[in-house]
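Sanity check. The docking grid for adenosine-5'-diphosphate depends on where the pocket ends up, so I'm generating a full predicted complex first rather than guessing from homology. Inputs follow.
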Amino acid sequence: MTVERDLAAAGAAIVRAAFEVHGQRYARITARARRHFERADWLAGQRDSARRLDLYGECIAEALPRLHERLGALAADPDAWHAIRDAYALAVAERGDAELAETFYNSCARRMLKIVGVDPRLEFLGLGERNAPGGASGRTGFDAPDAAGLVTDEVAVTFPRDGDLAQLVRHVLEDGGFSVPWDDIDGDARRVADRIRAAVDVRRVRAIELARPVFFRGKAAYRVGRLLTDGAAVPLLIAFRNPFGRVIVDAVLTTEDEVSIVFSFSRSYFFVRWERPRELVAYLRAIMPRKPVSELYTAIGWHRHGKTELYRSLLRHLVASDDRFEIAPGQRGMVMCVFTLPSFDVVFKVIRDRFEPPKTVTHAEVREKYRLVFRHDRAGRLVDAQQFEEMEFRRERFAPELLAQLLELASESVHLRGDTVVLRHLYTERRLQPLDLYLRQAPHEAAHEAVIDYGQVLRDLAASNIFPGDMLLKNFGVSRHGRLIFYDYDELAPLSECRFRELPHSSDDGDESAGEPWYYVGERDIFPEEFRTFLGLRGELLATFLAHHEELLGVAFWHRMQAQHARGEVPDIYPYRTARRLRRDGGTAPAGGTPEESTR
Ligand SMILES: Nc1ncnc2c1ncn2[C@@H]1O[C@H](COP(=O)(O)OP(=O)(O)O)[C@@H](O)[C@H]1O
Ligand SMILES: [Mg+2]
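Predicted complex below; grid placement will be based on this.
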């Protein structure tokens, strides 16, 4: 059946208009980040952060009824959509953000047509359709490092050196264009120059190159780029803060790993404006070649396209590999069935049909928790999860015991259609090493560091108003940078909704009856004294934990954090080590008495 040109053009125009509306709303919110930073209005920043994440679904939801109305009987007709796709492709081809436009189209088409798997006739696959900022499949299963050639003068600005390094740095700092006065720009320039001197042979520094846009997130602003030296390009990230109505440089990072941690999949997305995201991603990739393209798109706020890139890299990887999906290492979940492809750094989580006791949550609640995490500040401690619907893979790629487990325990989400495994709903996350497994084989020092970081996770989450709930070791993972990250969300809750209580001392009341607790335990009642048992730490590791974090086992710490949130304060969380901070006063007082820091 041939579809009228008009109809195809009209369908394409509706999708395009919805995409443009999304772009406008997105840009408006993103642009406000600078103002929030300058006014130190952190709560407004948090609201915008959540608000911006809702836009995509909203704009799709607005487009669907229009499409139904205009297309009428052809609304779910594949031929019609084939023609609409072609019309749309022409309309968006010249856009600087064409890849985002295609992802948006795919979202609409999938919803209208209820596509299972992918349909190459109806969707944009992006597979080599255009110069994507990635390459072929690499070791980790993501795109190979390759972006050096893609850096353009447009996305980055170069500040050539002409003499004194501190002078050059001062020039760079001024370029941020903040409307708030500097606290001590000369001092900051000097401190930054000192750090650079400590990191590279300063005589060889020819220039500083920075991505043009400023990156905003939480209570900080960042510039990211490279030190161009005679020999090589060294990553450079400058973190700015506005602690008392004056801008300070809080930290300087000069290694790929440190910069990568700032761009982690366990943090909220940046607010950064750039018309051609592909260029920005390519530039970031040149600085962090190990970061998957998908995570970079996500990090700069385009999480839907990040998801598209992840899916594409998985498809490419499946073609280039022959290992099978397997049950993920570690303890089996009571709520989730978790599997992985050994050669690909991702886990797939499917919600089980029934949960093992004592879990009392429902499916809807589990999804709601994942959504809460998606919209909340992840503080560098909660893994980002992508939600997928109607994925399909060839059956032969599944290890038999995994397939049997999925069909038995998660039959509402997984079924077979001939030789195809259809997954109706799942989450993907970066694969981490479960902490319980890690502690079993980690060298002494690494194990102790992990235990210290474990306590720090609880503190960082508390600072972002989150209580993780199920804090057993198996629910934390270790990243490739050795950072601990939490991933089990079904019992997670806002800290402000929890009730931290001391265990009543039964002997005082003499009213203890055997078995059940004799005191009332509400759903949100939490007894920090009990954590000691939950932790599952013994001997030296427990001693290390207590030496650093004993206060977490009392109610006072938690009440203090709750009070802070109740006052509307937004505590500081730094995506770098304290030793990396330039001003030990943490920017809590204006300069003057600032201790000059020389240690590293
Ligand atoms: N991101 C991840 N990386 C590696 N392993 C994971 C990840 N998420 C979950 N797992 C593994 O799967 C198990 C169950 O997942 P979890 O999210 O804790 O679900 P449940 O709520 O069912 O316990 C974990 O104990 C761990 O072994
Ligand atoms: Mg778990």
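Relevant for the grid: The pocket of adenosine-5'-diphosphate (ligand 1) is lined by residues 328, 330-331, 333-336, 338, 347, 383, 429, 431-432, 434, 474-475, 477, 487-488, 490 (CB under 6 Å).
Also worth noting: The CA atoms of residues 26 and 52 lie 6 Å apart.
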